[in-house]
Each structure stands twice: as structure tokens, then as C-alpha cells.
Amino acid sequence: MLCVLGLAAAPAPVRAQAAYVPSAANLAAREWFQDAKFGMFIHWGIYSVLQDDAWVTNNRQLRIPELETLAPQFNPTRFNAVEWVALAKAAGARYITFTTKHHDGFAMFDSQVSDWDIVDRTPFRRDVVRELADECRRQDIRLFVYYSQIDWHHPDFYPRGGTGRHFGRPESGDFGRYLDFLDAQVRELLTNYGPLAGIWFDGQWDKGGDWRLDRTYRMIHDLQPAALIGSNHNGWFNTGEDIALFERMLPGTQNARLDSARARRLPMEMSETINGSWGFRLWDRDLKSTARLIRELVEAAGQDANFLLNVGPMPTGEIQPEFVERMRGIGAWLQRYGESIYGTRGGPITPRPWGVTTQRGDRVYVHVLDWRDPMLALPSLPRRVRAASLLAGGARVAFRETAAGVTITLPPRPAGEVDQVVVLELGPA
User: Fold this and answer.
1) CB atoms within 10 A of CB 64
2) Cβ partners under 8 Å of residue 241, min gap 6
3) Closest by alpha carbon to 68, among 37, 1, 114?
4) Phi, psi of 328 (to 5 degrees)
5) In angstroms, rounded to a whole number, what is the distance separating the alpha carbons of residues 112 and 53?
6) d(CA 92, CA 398)
7) Which of 64, 89, 167, 210 is 20 to 30 Å from the Cα of 415, by its Cα?
8) Which residue intervals of the chain bear CATH 2.60.40.1180?
9) Which CATH architecture has domain 24-345?
């Protein structure tokens, strides 16, 4: 993730998959992704033993012998893929993105090209990715695999970027050989775990040079044409990528820099944490409320983007109760208001201080987040409004339409209501 380095200027886009034309299956998967709107991110690895953020091994400047002592301590006997996937479903998430390898290089699957993995180095000896993939299929949740292009453990990740400089690796290495290793592990993920929703790459921002993306992306699209490729760039992207990713920022906002307008041609996703950490940090009590997280989901939908919300399981394999509570709270809200989120696109009114709009067909959903006056003035819509009502309960909402726009009369807002959703039914074109 970009959270440690901050928003340093990103490198210019590198050569990627030349003359890429998405397959029909890939285009259909992009449409599904835009309809899904909400996913559950899971950051989990041997770093959880230290009960700190996923960046802990870099932040504490561990050396490789010290890093390798974490694996024998990692024995998450309370991990239960059934419970994890069931929580995603209860939250209303349509997909899970799981960290199969974070920046420390440790694989949470049974890799045949390295023994630096959960099966070979831990007493747990179970392939977490396999169990998750199997359970996602059983519970009809799609699985994305996060894969870090940075590797603080591999000797051939050289020359190094701005992170991982304290691990004590030799001042040499063959980057081409490292990319062969990267491709081999990505191939394992694509061939050993059934159909995947896609690959969520992270780390290209930390190192210049030729990543051979043309070869990697072509391999992915050849092996699984419907798998969506995304890379954590925050607004710029390379040819061959199918979705545009934004970390902790809404696309279209001031911080989502570079060629975000170009990225808008792709389905978009914003990732966020429940507290301030990627992974399980014992003392991070800065928990966002369920109401705030619902607002962020709604605001992302209003920007025509998905919302990917992270949980960081404990070293035992359990997800902390505070995270479970908030995920279930979002799910309860989506059971009532999901019509205004799932399957929608960004609405005809751009985000305003009072809220956002989403749209599906002839229905425009006005999400009133910050407005307490009874009258709300909207700009003109593409077609005339023939009816207005509250999504919750269906009560009619009075409105007046002129050449200048539409004014709706909001009924009293119930205490604690996060988002007052008004449905505008548009007439024929």
C-alpha cells in the first residue's frame, strides 16, 4: 500500500500489454465488477504475529533472519474460511480481495517456486488461499488475489526502491530473474485455485525500470481472460489493466491526481481501512463508525466507484469483533438501501456538498447525506421527473420542476438516519 510513502510523484506509465483488446468475457467481468459495488479487503500474513500494521517489518527495520523468525510463530488455528466468507456475505460484499503475498514476500499459498510460504515455513501448514477460493465458490463470492510486486525478502529484487532497505539483502541481484519468479507465482495462482475475479497488484510505484508488464499481463489474460487486472496507482494506469484503483481517496477528488480522467474509462475502486491500519494493529483504536463507513460507500458509488473495505485478522485467524460489528452494520444498511447502490452507475448530478446521486435505468437515487432544510434544489435532469418517493417505505416526496431544475421537499429526517435516499422516476426520453 502507499500509506507509508505518502503521495510522492508516481513514475511515468511503463510499457504494458501492447495492443490490448479485452475479450468478451473480460468486458462482461468489468460490467459485473461495476455492478458489485462493495468488496471486503483482507490484509493478513506473518506480520500479524507482531500485532501491527502490514508495514511493521519495514517500519521496525527488521533484517531477514529476524523476519524469518515470524513464520514458525504463525499458527492461526482459529482461521475459518467459512466464517470469513460468511462475514463478507453478511456485510453485503460481493467479492473478497486477499493478500496472497504482501511486501515481505511471504506467500499465503503453497508455492512450488519458493519455500517462503505458509505451508513450508509455518506449523499451520495449510494453504489459506485454497481454502478461501473453495469457500468463495461455495458461498458465491468472487475472489481477487492481491499480489505485491515489491519483495523485501527475495535476493533478486534489485536495485531496490525506497522501501525495504534495512533487511540486509546483498547489494546485487538479477531483476529479470526476480520477474521470472513473480510470473511463476502469479501463474500458480491462476492455474491452481480455479477461476479468479482478478489480480490486485501493488508496489510498482516503489521502483522504476522495466517491469515486463507486457509479458505478465498477457500471461494473465491468456490463462484467465475474464480475470481483471488492477494496479495500485491512484489514478494513472498502464495498457492491459482492466480496473483503476484508488487507495484511501475518491476518484475525481483533488488528491486523486495524474490521469484520473483517463482512468475513468475503466471501472474504478476505492480502498479504505476501518481504523488507520492495513492489517491487525492491537493498539489502533481509531475506529471509523459504521455510519461513516456507509457514507464512504455511498460517496464512492456517487463517483461511479466500488468501495473495498479492509479487515485485518488477528494472528489467531479471527477477525476482531469491532470489525465484525461494522461489517454487519453495513450489511444491515445494504439490505434496506442496496437498490440504490448495487447495479448503479454514478448519477446525472455530480457530487455536491449535500451528497451524491446514483442511477439505474429510469431511476435516479438522490443520496442526501448532509442537508437539514426541508427544500433541496437540484439542477436540471436529462429527462422530466414523473414521480419522487423515499426509498425507505416508499412515501411520496413532493417536487416542483422548472427549466432551472427540480426542487424536492424532504420529509422530517428520522434520528440517526445516515442517508436519506429519494428516488426520482424519470419519464420517457
Assistant:
1) 16
2) 16, 217, 229, 230, 231, 266
3) 114
4) -65, -35
5) 28
6) 31
7) 89
8) 347-426
9) Alpha-Beta Barrel (3.20)
